[in-house]
Design brief:
about 650 residues, alpha+beta, five-stranded parallel beta sheet, five-stranded antiparallel beta sheet, about 40% helix
């Protein structure tokens, strides 16, 4: 029998979630007060979960790595959030949202999870409107929608180009209310460094106070991880500098499976790299592809002149422009899914048609939209994004096209969870981008906010009760237990070892080295030889890090370099597992593109007979090879097909 039980309810797809809720165990209101839940993270998933669980009556301890939950990286999400309200009357439905999402993920996600996500999405919009989120409205007063990649309907609700920020403020208001009532105890500037397991169950965490440097212990009946993804393993990504995979990685080292680590998303519309000293990349929202048209010159001579700076994009005539997405994918045009658009941009640039001085950029042009709609309408839709672009590049996108290039964005892999969002460690739950579920091998735009809020507001508050129902007689834990002693000693030893190295290289210089290895060999295109090389080079980098890193300052007070070093130690190991997983998966699917496995047209070629499963990696110990377990993805309701965005 497989060690993996996904706990998917029986019955028709559209009835699974209702059936689950009808039969789950509950905790009565008086007993909820006797139960403590730790929620790590205060982004959309963490904040919505902490607020919801506290509203229900549980005692919640909420941990925030920033100085305020309002600074969580969820604020960076620009374009919108999906739901199948069908306000546009263009044929949308819960089933269509489900199907677009599972197809967009290249048929590598669980049917039941994705259907539940589509099902609860409408409730998210109602919840956020009630919180006062200022979604855009059309002239009749209904909420407006825009289109996003991988769909032929308009289902994306938005607040200009700052949807993530507005949704987070809604969740933050709900969370602040619970903090004020005393049902949530908020710990800002605290970073989780380990999870504590007692008798096989998650019962607490060890955290570092980032201001004082003090290591602190916290106990609870259950632990929820909502700490986002691990895209910063690539150093340059669209993630905030503080975004990291450490909390998830420590869960992996304590027995939680890590699923599909190789599945990282490349976002096609990012401001290109413009220097050696850059520390992150800036995203230009996918919503811009509603009205922006992507092109490169048809003639290689024009491309060379653009690269040399002797020709301006506005000098190139319309008939000499190659709108390559519209040419290759007529049915979806510029709104193909992110992985498809990213690879198409790479193909044009690799062929020599890139448009900036590095040859690694394509144009995103709004001249047609400005002619059709007028500058005022374009400014009303995207003004803050245009302003951000101009501040960074000193170029006016109303007059000349934006330059964009793909960049690392969102990680679909993460901690493995079952249908209840519980990991393979009882009592340890993972939500939002921290878990692997719901997106498969590629995420459609505007689905990250959807999943984070679905998990926090409408899924976890039900499923965690199923676990806690038989925990009400368990007394509160003392943090003086030997399990806490052992976990804290492990952290103290690790920090002492890092501080004693006193090498010559900064954390950032070593992180950049990791980033180059990851982008070159585990990036948009991967092959067997490159992945083997990546694994070897990452192992060498790990030795270099642990023998030559230099961390100034002291461990027992504010020390940003120590924070970064602890995270980089984990990123190095995450990078190796990503490369290992990519090497093992000898097919192309979504964001995982093996060069040996592509169609004659250059599209991703899956091998469903061999790889229709979730890769679940089980930790075996320091410097030991992990064990691969497989959760079969048996589809009952969807027929897998070669993805087609051409007709």
């Amino acid at each position: 029998m497989s060690k993996i039980d996904s706990k998917i309810p029986a019955g028709p797809l559209a009835e699974k979630w209702t059936s689950y809720k009808d039969h789950q165990k509950l905790v009565n209101p008086a007993n909820k007060r006797r139960l403590d839940i730790i929620v790590v993270g205060t982004g959309l998933a963490g904040a919505s979960a902490a607020a919801s669980l506290a509203e229900m009556g549980f005692n919640v301890l909420n941990f925030c790595i920033q100085d305020s939950p309002r600074r969580a990286h969820s604020i960076a999400a620009q374009g919108g959030i999906n739901a199948a309200k069908n306000y546009q009357n263009d044929g949308d439905s819960v089933y269509r949202l489900f199907y677009d999402t599972i197809k967009g993920g290249d048929y590598r996600a669980r049917e039941a999870n994705v259907y539940r996500l589509a099902e609860v999405a409408n409730s998210i919009i109602d919840q956020c409107v009630a919180q006062g989120v200022p979604f855009a409205r059309e002239y009749g007063g209904l909420l407006d929608n825009r289109s996003f990649g991988g769909a032929q309907v308009s289902r994306t609700f938005y607040a200009r180009g700052q949807t993530g920020q507005q949704l987070l403020l809604g969740a933050y208001s709900a969370l602040s209310r619970q903090v004020g009532k005393g049902t949530v105890k908020m710990y800002t500037r605290h970073e989780m460094l380990d999870v504590v397991i007692i008798d096989g169950r998650a019962r607490g965490i060890i955290a570092r106070n980032l201001v004082t440097g003090k290591i602190e212990r916290f106990a609870a009946h259950a632990v929820v991880i909502g700490t986002g993804g691990y895209g910063n393993a690539f150093f340059l990504s669209t993630n905030a500098m503080a975004s990291n995979g450490s909390a998830a990685w420590q869960c992996y080292k304590k027995g939680a499976y890590f699923a599909n680590p190789c599945m990282a998303q490349i976002h096609p519309t990012c401001i290109p790299v413009h220097g050696e000293f850059q520390s992150k990349l800036t995203l230009m929202s996918e919503s811009l592809r509603n009205d922006g048209r992507i092109w490169v010159p048809k003639n290689i001579e024009d491309a060379k002149k653009l690269q040399a700076g002797t020709l301006r994009p506005t000098d190139i005539k319309e008939e000499d422009r190659d709108y390559y997405l519209e040419r290759r994918y007529p049915a979806f045009g510029n709104l193909v899914p992110r992985d498809v658009a990213s690879r198409a941009a790479k193909e044009r640039c690799d062929a020599g048609y890139g448009v900036n001085n590095t040859g690694l950029a394509v144009f995103l042009d709004f001249s047609s939209a400005i002619k059709r709609l007028g500058k005022d309408v374009v400014e009303a839709r995207y003004g803050n994004l245009f302003q951000m672009y101009e501040k960074i590049t000193n170029d006016n996108p109303y007059e000349t096209p934006m330059m964009i290039y793909p960049a690392i964005h969102y990680t679909m892999g993460g901690i493995w969870v079952d249908y209840e969002l519980m990991t393979s460690v009882p009592g340890l739950f993972a939500i939002g981008e921290a878990n692997f579920s719901d997106h498969g091998a590629n995420r459609l735009g505007a689905s990250a906010l959807m999943q984070g809020l679905a998990d926090g507001y409408f899924v976890l508050p039900y499923t965690i009760q199923n676990y806690l129902a038989d925990q009400i007689q368990v007394p509160r834990f003392s943090t003086d237990r030997p399990e806490f002693d052992e976990a804290e000693k492990g952290i103290q030893d690790r920090i002492a070892r890092l501080m004693s190295i006193k090498g010559k290289q900064s954390v950032d210089s070593l992180h950049k080295k990791l980033g180059h290895i990851m982008w070159d060999f585990v990036g948009m295109g991967r092959d067997e030889a490159g992945l083997k090389k990546a694994i070897e080079q990452i192992k060498e980098l790990k030795k270099e890090f642990w023998s030559d890193v230099f961390i100034p300052g002291k461990a027992d007070n504010l020390n940003v370099e120590l924070e970064k070093a602890l995270r980089l130690a984990d990123f190095i190991e995450i990078g190796e597992l990503m490369a290992r997983d990519a090497h093992d998966r000898e097919e192309s699917c979504g964001g995982h593109f093996r060069l040996e496995h592509q169609t004659p047209e250059g599209e991703a070629l899956r091998h469903d007979d061999q790889f229709a499963y979730v890769s679940c990696w089980e930790y075996q110990g320091e410097d030991q090879d992990p064990v691969l377990l497989k959760e079969p993805l048996d589809y009952e309701f969807v027929v897998r097909q070669q993805r087609n965005y051409k007709n």
